[in-house]
Amino acid sequence: MASLGGPDVGFVPTMGAFHEGHLTLMRNARQRHESVCVSLFVNPLQFGRGEDLEMYPRNEERDFELATAAGVDTMFAPSAAELYTRESTLVRVPDITELWEGEVRPGHFDGVATVVAKLFNIVRPRIAYFGWKDIQQCLVIRRMVSDLNMQIGLDFHDTVRESDGLALSSRNAYLTPNDRSAAPLLHRALSRLSSILRGSQLTQELIDLNLTQTKADLRSNGFDVDYLELVNLDDMKKTRTAGPAALIVAARLGTTRLIDNERLDLP
Ligand code: PAF
Description:
The N and C termini lie far apart (49 Å). It is built from nine helices and eight strands. The mean pLDDT is 96. The protein has a five-stranded parallel β-sheet with strand order 3-2-1-4-5, sandwiched between helices. Strands 6-7-8 form a three-stranded antiparallel β-sheet, with helices on one face. α5 crosses α6 (135-147) and α8 runs antiparallel to α9. By secondary structure, the protein is of the alpha/beta class. The chain is 37% helix and 21% strand. Residues 13-15, 43, 46, 112, 115-116, 134, 137 line the site of pantoate. Pantoate (PAF) binds at residues 13-15, 43, 46, 112, 115-116, 134, 137.
């Protein structure tokens, strides 16, 4: 496949079903580059068996219109057969990919790293843009770029939220009206926890207690919590020591799986 690159391409990799989070990345890239490329590809390699590959929201026509209005020059929307002509070589980032999302979704990050590496080679961007909402994805890609000496800058943008705090996600379309009204509790719980942790230096036991209590609150509000933890911003291991950290959470509401996070400096 020929390279789509030019001297100064800003690149936004996506799986489509655009929302304001995607469009913010595109507009940012537009301000900084001669040319902006967006890829739209629902990558089968990053979906596990029984996950939502078939039902993942798709609306290419609308996506093309929105991207054009955001100033995008090139849309790259290959088919799976074009991108994967045979069983692919895989890119596997060690350790960090086995935690949290990687534990719940085995193989997910091999699919992400592989497709992002392929897209980087095809598009040859100067800078690629991602949203912090997928914090583990950002750190996996940062590690891949560093380990493989890829000459690509990375720009991670803050999560864009609904007015009630719910992080924008293409998967929010799956929420029933009842689940949609409960969903903002996830961000509210993270914000409350974050202000407690930022407020004063707590012992490990008190941090653990606050995490346990928040998990219990979420469960009593109908969330099936996969994980809620305080991790460092490097290898995403659990941390209780001062420095840059993030609260990360994944929980199911009905059949919809939501993830969110809040970065903070632990005193
Ligand atoms: O975040 C996404 O939409 C996808 O994981 C990505 C980075 C486009 C790879 O398929």
